Structures are given as structure tokens and as C-alpha cells.
């Protein structure tokens, strides 16, 4: 029973700024810091390889003293809009109706909402009343691929069905005004807001790249490397400087056994669809794969145009790849990393 990807779409918030436009706002945020520290922070923003990012709130509000409750209210309100928009866009791309969906998975980690996003989408789009729903939280940047894995397993067990995975993230809503740690600064420099939707199918009449295999990989003793700490002022970023080095150390175990069990090696992969976690992680991946003639140009371009949008970001890379219409038989490798610490992989064939 084959499972295919029918369509991928994205949705972006109304606010956006170039990095150059954000730099003046740093002066008011860092007004009580010494000049050397201010220069260092601006250098981090300028060197983050992010030219532009989108946000569910104005940049002025991001760098304000909005409470946790106020920020989360914006996350909920705007997240519902973005989720509905990207799902509608994907259904239009696929020429599907809302009632065609059998399974809906929503993923997010940058706010708190109960009921979860899927409940709102069921009502807004009038999805079927017997649709199966699964909200996935607390998996961070890896959740977009995780959601696809869960959808694939459902569809493989249920022939002739269709599923939607919707990722909605607002990292700017987690910004901590009075936190001048490197984790908060780097987070502000690389993250942006956005949403994406992937439609998958086990209906053999639906065409698209087939998911050949999927697998998760969990790092031992790395729980504290990445995530959020829930504080009185909101979700405080946890981001260890050793993340790129740790990923590099584990890369052989992440990539090669997964491909080998499918009778492949890295030279057989035509397209690398990698999550753009940040400039240092991209540099690490390029050093590992550049000598093999592989590139992650689409990953770099997504980071440049949108920043890291947590779970939604790798789906933007997938959309770019889908739009290029790879030739029949070409293979792609999807990869994302997230808290845990973990790596999620999907092997595709067009």
C-alpha cells in the first residue's frame, strides 16, 4: 500500500520586516546594555543568514512588554487564521473538498491552546464530523516530519484515505523581553512565524511522490539541549551552543543506516529536503555533503526568506521541491531535528 504526497502549501502572517529594519528596534530593547554587548547582538542578527521574517504581531509589539497571556492570545487567534488559510490553499491545489479528509494532524509548539487547532479547523472548514484528529505538541522543529510519519502510518493501514498535516508556529510570541541570554538572542535572530500544510493519500488514484520509508532517531542524554522552559513570562527558549556539533557527530548514524536498509547510499539521493535550523547547522550539513556533490540550496533559501519557523520550515523546503516537479524515479531525503534530542527522516520517490 503506497502513500503519496498530493500537495503542499504555506500561509504567512500579515507583518514582515527585513533584518535591516529590525536592527533599529534592538537599540530600544538593549538600551540599558553596554555598547560592546549591543554590537555583539547586532552582529548575531546580521550574520544569521535571515534577510526577512514574518510575524503574527508587529515588530514593535514583539519588542514590548506584552504579557504571556496577551502573547498567547495572539498566537491562538492568528494561528487559527493561518491554519485555516494553509489548509484551504492545499485543498485547492489538490482539487480536494474539505469533506474528503479522513484524518487531520495539527502540530505546534510555540503556544498553548485547548481545544487544539484541529478542533477549530473542523468547525471553520466544516470537515467531516467523523474525521480522526491528532494534535502534536512539544516536538519542536521536528514535528512537521513527525506529523507526516504519523499520517503515513495511518494511511498505510487504511487504503483509500486522505490526511492533512498542518503546522502552525509563532516563535515571535515566545520572545522574552527581559532575557538577554544567548539562547533568547539567537532565537530572536533566526526565528520567524509561518504555517504550512501537507496533504497525503493512500488512494491509488492520487499522484505525487511516494513515501518509501520513515524513521525516527533519538539521541541519548540530550534532553536539555533544546526546547522551552515554561516561566511566568511565557515560553523561554532553551538552545545549547553545542547543537550543531552534536548533530555533526551523529550524522553518520542518522543518515547511512537508514539509507542502507533501503538499498541506497547518499549518492542515490537526488534532493536533500533539510530543515533550516540555523546558519551553523546549515554550514555543518554543507561540510558533510558538499564533497559528495549534494547541495541544500532550497534549505538555505527558505532560511533567508522566512527564518526558522520551527515545525513548518521543512515543509516550505518540501513545497519548493514539489514545485520543481522532479523527474519520475528521483529520490528525496527529508530530515528535521527537534527537542528530545531527535531526528526524523522520510525517504521519498517521485
Explain how this protein is built.
By secondary structure, the protein is α/β, with parallel strands linked by helices. It folds into two domains: 4-201, Peroxisomal Thiolase, Chain A, domain 1; 210-349, Thiolase/Chalcone synthase (Peroxisomal Thiolase, Chain A, domain 1), CATH 3.40.47. It is built from eleven helices and 13 strands. The strands form four sheets. Strands 1-7-6-4-5 form a five-stranded mixed β-sheet, with helices on both faces. It has a four-stranded mixed β-sheet with strand order 8-13-12-11, with helices on both faces. Strand 9 and strand 10 form a beta hairpin. The longest helix is centred in the N-terminal third of the chain and has 27 residues, at 68-94. It is globular. The mean pLDDT is 93.
What is the overall number of helices? 11
How would you classify the helix and strand content by structural class?
alpha/beta
In the CATH hierarchy, the architecture of the largest domain is 3-Layer(aba) Sandwich
- The succession of helices and strands, N to C, reads EEHHEHHEHEHEHEEEEHEHHHEE
Low-confidence runs (pLDDT<50, min 5 residues)? none
CATH C-level class of the largest domain: Alpha Beta
Mean pLDDT: 93
Strand content: 15-25%
Count of the separate structural domains: 2
Largest sheet data: 5 strands, mixed
Extended strand count: 13
Q: Which fold name fills CATH's third level, the topology of the largest domain?
A: Peroxisomal Thiolase, Chain A, domain 1
* The CATH superfamily title of the largest domain: Thiolase/Chalcone synthase
Helix content: 25-40%
Distance between the termini: 16 Å
Spatial strand arrangement across the major sheet: 1-7-6-4-5
Radius of gyration: 20 Å
Tertiary shape:
globular
Amino acid at each position: 500500500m503506497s502513500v503519496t504526497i498530493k500537495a503542499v502549501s504555506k500561509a504567512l502572517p500579515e507583518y514582515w520586516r527585513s533584518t535591516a529594519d529590525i536592527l533599529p528596534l534592538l537599540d530600544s530593547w538593549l538600551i540599558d546594555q553596554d555598547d560592546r554587548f549591543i554590537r555583539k547582538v547586532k552582529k548575531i542578527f546580521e550574520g544569521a543568514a535571515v534577510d526577512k521574517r514574518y510575524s503574527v504581531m508587529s515588530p514593535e509589539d514583539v519588542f514590548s512588554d506584552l504579557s504571556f497571556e496577551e502573547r498567547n492570545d495572539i498566537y491562538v487567534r492568528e494561528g487559527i487564521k493561518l491554519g485555516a488559510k494553509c489548509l484551504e490553499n492545499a485543498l485547492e491545489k489538490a482539487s480536494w473538498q474539505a469533506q474528503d479528509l479522513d484524518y487531520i494532524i495539527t502540530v505546534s509548539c510555540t503556544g498553548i491552546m485547548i481545544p487544539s487547532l484541529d478542533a477549530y479547523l473542523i468547525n471553520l472548514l466544516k470537515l467531516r464530523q467523523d474525521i480522526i484528529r491528532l494534535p502534536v505538541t512539544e516536538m519542536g522543529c521536528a514535528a512537521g516530519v513527525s506529523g507526516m510519519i504519523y499520517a503515513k502510518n495511518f494511511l498505510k493501514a487504511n487504503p483509500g484515505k486522505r490526511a492533512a498535516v498542518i503546522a502552525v508556529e509563532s516563535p515571535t510570541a515566545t520572545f522574552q523581553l527581559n532575557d538577554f541570554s544567548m539562547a533568547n538572542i539567537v532565537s530572536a535572530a533566526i526565528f520567524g512565524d509561518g504555517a504550512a500544510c501537507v496533504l497525503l493519500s493512500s488512494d491509488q488514484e492520487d499522484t505525487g511522490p511516494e513515501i518509501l520509508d520513515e524513521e525516527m532517531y533519538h539521541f541519548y542524554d540530550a534532553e536539555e539541549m533544546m526546547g522551552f522552559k515554561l516561566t511566568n513570562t511565557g515560553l523561554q527558549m532553551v538552545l545549547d551552543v553545542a547543537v550543531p556539533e552534536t548533530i555533526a557527530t551523529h550524522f553518520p548514524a542518522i543518515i547511512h543506516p537508514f539509507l542502507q536498509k533501503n538499498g541506497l547510499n547518499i549518492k542515490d539521493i537526488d534532493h536533500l529536503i533539510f530543515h533550516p535550523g540555523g546558519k551553523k547547522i546549515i554550514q555543518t550539513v554543507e561540510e558533510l555533503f558538499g564533497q559528495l556533490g549534494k547541495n541544500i540550496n532550497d534549505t538555505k533559501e527558505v532560511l533567508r526568506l522566512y527564518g526558522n519557523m520551527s515545525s513548518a520550515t521543512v515543509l516550505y523546503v518540501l513545497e519548493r521541491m514539489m514545485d520543481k516537479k522532479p523527474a519520475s524515479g528521483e529520490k528525496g531525503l527529508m530530515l528535521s531535528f527537534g527537542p528530545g534530542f531527535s531526528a526524523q527522516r522520510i525517504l521519498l520517490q517521485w
